[in-house]
Structure prediction request, 95 residues.
Amino acid sequence: MANYQVLYWREIPSLVKATDATGEVSVRLPQRFHDAIDEAAMQVGATDTEAYLAGWHWGPVQQRPGTAREVAEAIAADLAASIPLSTSPDPFREP
Prediction:
């Protein structure tokens, strides 16, 4: 069993962190998520360091069966497959 959390910029996921008895593993979401974060930050004017950093937050700690690596990779893959991002003005708009 592993505990995991998702790191978000506002509502856009960026990273999955999972821990188990052997340690911690972090898995970055695909580059399109990071591109969407940068684009969204520009659109809302969060271009200075303080405003940009204020958008980051961790989701709740949750549990899932598996090792930290298995869980982090599975959650990251699930998020990547289930959230269609585009480079439109609204990064969560369906393409």
